[in-house]
Write a structure and sequence with these properties.
Layout (H helix, E strand, L loop, with lengths): L11 H11 L4 H6 L5 E3 L3 E8 L5 E7 L7 E8 L3 E7 L2 E7 L8 H18 L7 E8 L5 H11 L7 E6 L9 E8 L5
Parallel strand pairs: 7-8
Antiparallel strand pairs: 1-2, 2-3, 3-4, 4-5, 5-6, 6-9, 7-9
Helix pairs in contact: 3-4
Length: about 190
């Protein structure tokens, strides 16, 4: 048969396998659960979207190239735009946290955001001691000393994460800072 794998056409087997696989899932199934994501990395990998009893979506990857199992957990959807947290292999990637009360000064907003981070980590089975990296976006870098005072009150000296502070023009009305973080989730005993 012209163009078949038997004749050695590169990638034809993978494309044929993918086509037959995709026919198993009608288009409404993909849109109902977010997406059926295709990943090409060291061969063909496809992620099956599954909704679990806890309501979280997990992706299990299968491959012809023995990449193995990839588990991605997406937590706390926000207005259909993003997830507040994405977990992969025990690492929590935390999206932008902004202050709930934008009338506060930099010190108040910093304590608010760091408190939200601590509460979120607790809900996810981690804590501030497991934070690996933080990026802070500030509308006024001259207020960095006020932020640093709040920072020192929340993080123990032995567990300070890597950190970057970036000046930005605007984060929204009254918002002085936004913070993203990467943290580890310790294995459950």
């Amino acid at each position: 048969m012209p163009g078949s794998c038997a004749q050695g056409r590169p990638g034809e087997h993978k494309r044929a396998t993918l086509r037959s696989f995709l026919h198993l899932f009608p288009m409404p199934y993909w849109t109902a659960f977010g997406s059926l994501r295709l990943i090409l990395r060291s061969g063909l990998v496809w992620n099956l979207c599954k909704r679990h009893r806890d309501g979280n979506v997990r992706y299990a990857a299968h491959s012809h190239s023995n990449i193995g199992l990839i588990m991605i957990q997406r937590v706390l959807p926000y207005e259909g735009l993003l997830h507040e947290v994405v977990e992969h292999d025990g690492v929590l990637y935390i999206g932008g946290i902004v202050p709930e009360d934008t009338s506060l000064d930099m010190s108040g907003q910093a304590n608010d955001v760091l408190g939200q981070l601590a509460q979120l980590l607790k809900r996810l089975g981690s804590d501030l001691a497991n934070v690996l990296q933080v990026t802070i976006y500030m509308t006024n870098l001259k207020e960095k000393s006020e932020f640093n005072a709040a920072w020192k009150a929340h993080f123990a000296a032995a567990h300070l994460p890597a950190r970057a502070a970036i000046g930005v023009a605007d984060l929204g009305p009254g918002v002085k800072l936004e913070m993203t973080a990467i943290a580890a989730r310790p294995p459950q005993a």
